[in-house]
């Protein structure tokens, strides 16, 4: 691969960006580049019945939509699929509220995730990474995702939220089934191929949500009897509107945190490993002073991987973006990955630069819904690579097996050989 080029193949410029299959060969960068250059506010059809959404692909517009919750509400859903009112009500989490309800709910969990508090988790996470690496690296040849990446964020999250760590494996399995609801490796109820109507009131229309709900009920029962200083107890005892969360609200909140905190960071780590493998010169430079270089390197890995590819809003009024008229009720989808590769943002977005500073990427979104776990994700990516590079002198990666999803840029398997 040419020096410092991030993606050898940018894909088909005419790729269907709605199709889950498109993403099996990676993010369709060429198609999004074409959108940014030719039609940055583009109407994308979803079928033959006139349904569709506005694809917002430029950095400045993603910011404008994300920050203006009055014109672009999250309350009509944050995924491209349209939901009926009963589905929305049953599945509503923190993410599908606008202020002031959103502000009250977010205040419940925010204190556990501030950068200052998250710093106090660093030593524990470093120990966890050390333990896992020391066990797995001697294998020499292994699947990086199942042996390492999949293990780390969930085990940290369990500690933080207050879930026994020995349950982490089943939580990952349920999380995989839910967020990967378009991939046959993880679920028989493939969202765009199988009738999932009987699960329409569950998160991600997934039967796995029943399992995670049952689990959340058990944990709630235990904590009500024996409160602890953890996020679960906070959620159960809080009264954001003068009354406690209902059982369903608690279960949806619990599910959101377990899925959002696990199914994102681990894929970032896997993408990061591929970038490092493809850019040995930059890694050699980073190694000269690992700690000094790791903050900038982490931001560049986060930008380039941009694992959460989009979220959706809905226009509340007739309006316009970049002069393009938008009608009240239209779906407006902000594509973070595209925004991170916008030449209005960076002169050289398709170059990996582990020393990039400043790095104004939008991987964690912006506005009221900006990622709650951003500081935690940053810490996990940084500490992981510091520990990995300090133990491994050289390594090779094989072909990644990618997730079938237009939503999460995931890597299911990644062969690694330690040299
Ligand atoms: C690299 C890893 C991660 C990425 C790329 C990512 C991405 C995002 C993005 C783009 C949003 C904004 C959604 C919107 O505007 O509608 C978001 C929100 C959120 N993230 Fe993350 N996230 C990551 C890690 C985490 C972690 C570790 C947690 C831990 C609990 C987490 C929990 C959440 C929650 C709860 C929200 C909803 C916040 C709200 O609606 O107020 N995320 N994330």
Give the total of domains.
1
How many beta-strand elements?
A: 12
> Which ligands are bound?
protoporphyrin IX containing FE
Strand content: 5-15%
Overall pLDDT confidence: 93
| N- and C-termini, Cα separation | 20 Å
Strand order of the largest sheet: 1-2-8-5-3
pLDDT < 50 stretches = none
What is the share of helical residues?
A: 40-55%
User: In the CATH scheme, what's the topology name?
Assistant: Cytochrome p450
Q: Which class do the helix and strand fractions yield?
A: alpha+beta
The run of helices and strands is HEEHEHHHHEHHHHHHHHHEEEEHHEEEE
How would you name the CATH homologous superfamily? Cytochrome P450
* CATH A-level architecture: Orthogonal Bundle
Structure report:
- This protein has 419 residues and is of the alpha+beta class.
- The protein has a single domain, classed as Cytochrome p450, CATH 1.10.630.
- The protein is built from 17 helices and 12 strands.
- The strands form 4 sheets. The chain has a 5-stranded mixed sheet with strand order 1-2-8-5-3. The chain has a 3-stranded antiparallel sheet with strand order 4-12-9.
- The protein is globular and about 55 Å long.
- The two termini are 20 Å apart.
- It binds protoporphyrin IX containing FE.
- The site of protoporphyrin IX containing FE (HEM) has 27 residues, from α12, α13 and α17.
In short:
The chain is of the alpha+beta class.
What is the fold's blueprint, element by element?
Blueprint: H1 29-38, E1 41-45, E2 52-56, H2 59-67, E3 72-73, H3 85-91, H4 101-109, H5 115-119, H6 122-136, E4 141-143, H7 144-149, H8 152-161, H9 168-179, H10 208-225, H11 231-237, H12 247-262, H13 265-278, H14 280-288, H15 290-305, E5 310-315, E6 319-321, E7 324-326, E8 331-335, H16 336-340, H17 374-391, E9 395-397, E10 401-402, E11 411-413, E12 415-418
Parallel strand pairs: 2-8
Antiparallel strand pairs: 1-2, 3-5, 4-12, 5-8, 6-7, 9-12, 10-11
């Amino acid at each position: 691969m040419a020096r410092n080029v991030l993606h050898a193949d940018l894909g088909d410029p005419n790729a269907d960006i709605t199709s889950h299959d498109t993403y099996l060969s990676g993010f369709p960068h060429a198609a999004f580049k074409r959108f940014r250059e030719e039609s940055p506010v583009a109407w994308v059809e979803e079928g033959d019945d006139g349904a569709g959404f506005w694809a917002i692909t430029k950095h400045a517009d993603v910011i404008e939509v994300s920050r203006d919750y009055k014109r672009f509400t999250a309350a009509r859903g944050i995924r491209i699929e349209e939901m009926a009112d009963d589905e929305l009500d049953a599945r509503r989490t923190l993410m599908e509220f606008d202020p002031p309800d959103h502000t009250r709910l977010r205040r419940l969990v925010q204190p556990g995730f501030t950068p200052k508090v998250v710093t106090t988790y660093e030593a524990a996470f470093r120990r966890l990474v050390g333990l896992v690496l020391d066990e797995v690296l001697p294998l020499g040849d292994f699947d990086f995702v199942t042996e390492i990446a999949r293990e780390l964020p969930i085990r940290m999250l369990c500690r933080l939220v207050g879930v026994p760590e020995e349950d982490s494996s089943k939580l990952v399995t349920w999380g995989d089934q839910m967020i990967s609801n378009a991939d046959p490796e993880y679920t028989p109820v493939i969202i765009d191929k199988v009738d999932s109507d009987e699960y329409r009131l569950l998160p991600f229309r997934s039967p796995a949500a029943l399992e995670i709900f049952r689990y959340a009920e058990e944990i709630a029962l235990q904590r009500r009897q024996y409160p602890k200083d953890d996020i679960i107890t906070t959620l159960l005892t809080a009264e954001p509107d003068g009354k406690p969360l209902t059982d369903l609200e608690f279960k949806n909140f619990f599910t959101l945190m377990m899925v959002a905190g696990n199914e994102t960071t681990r894929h970032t780590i896997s993408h990061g490993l591929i970038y490092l493998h493809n850019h040995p010169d930059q890694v050699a430079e980073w190694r000269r002073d690992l700690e000094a270089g790791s903050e900038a390197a982490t931001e560049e890995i986060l930008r380039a991987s941009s694992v959460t590819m989009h979220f959706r809003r809905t226009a509340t009024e007739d309006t316009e973006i970049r002069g393009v008229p938008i009608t009240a009720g239209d779906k407006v989808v902000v594509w973070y990955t595209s925004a991170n590769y916008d030449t209005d943002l960076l002169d050289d977005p398709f170059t990996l630069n582990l020393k990039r500073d400043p790095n104004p990427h939008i991987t964690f979104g912006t506005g009221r819904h900006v990622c709650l776990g951003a500081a935690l994700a940053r810490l996990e990516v940084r500490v992981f690579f510091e520990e990995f590079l300090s133990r491994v002198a050289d390594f090779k990666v094989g072909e990644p097996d990618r997730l079938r999803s237009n939503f999460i840029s995931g890597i299911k398997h990644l062969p690694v050989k330690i040299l």
